[in-house]
Amino acid sequence: MRKIALTLIVSIALILCLGGTPQMVVAKDKLPPPPPANDPPSEPVAVIMWTNHLDFLPGDTSVKTSFNAVNSGVGGGLSGLIIESDTLGEDANGGGNKVVEKGLQVPPGFLISGVRVCYELLNSRSFISQIRLAQVQDPPSTALVLLDDGTDLTDAGPVCVNSAELSTPIDPSKGAVRLNFRVNFGDVTDRIVLRAVGLNLLVDPNGPFQQIIGGLENHTHTYLTGKGKGHNNTQAETGPAIIE
Q1: How far apart are CA 109 and CA 205, in angstroms?
Q2: What is the pTM of this model?
Q3: Which of 32, 34, 57, 163 has the greatest count of CB atoms below 10 A from its CB?
């Protein structure tokens, strides 16, 4: 009896050390029936994916980008993509928007619901004035603007903010997606430093990952308790997976 009790205590301790929670094994006839296979899919799983914020390109000759690993010259000096301009305002030389822009790489099975940007300003008179996502069409002669957030990000920071959330997330499998930040300069000596840029992603409810999650949520299997001998020869069934 002492040996059995000791084994039970050790088993529970191992489960707790591994971060698990001990669960009671219940006979199959005591378990609630599994949910039907045609249950509606669970809510989309939201994640953030950080992109390479150092590879934005200047949109025209009035915008300069650089990098200094020792000191960015803004705030405490933490490095990042330094954005400067030799003209005032938010219009490019020759017209159009004064921007920095990059192409995005998104893993299959995910949708884009918004953008997260972390930055710091030398002075709040020079700031990011627009966050835009555009998707290249087929044939690739136009790009359709799908996110156009014109909020002026004048908080000097350092700070991280989210763009407006898209009611209809972007499906990157339908065409290449570009991200640009429009910048507005009140003084040519100012700097904007990008410290991080992320994409707010959702698991595509019709994609392969959601199908796997749905399968796990409804999955159970039957097994015999103990060694399958004597009073241990009891059929039991696991509960479905817990997706968090």
Answers
A1: 9
A2: 0.70
A3: 163
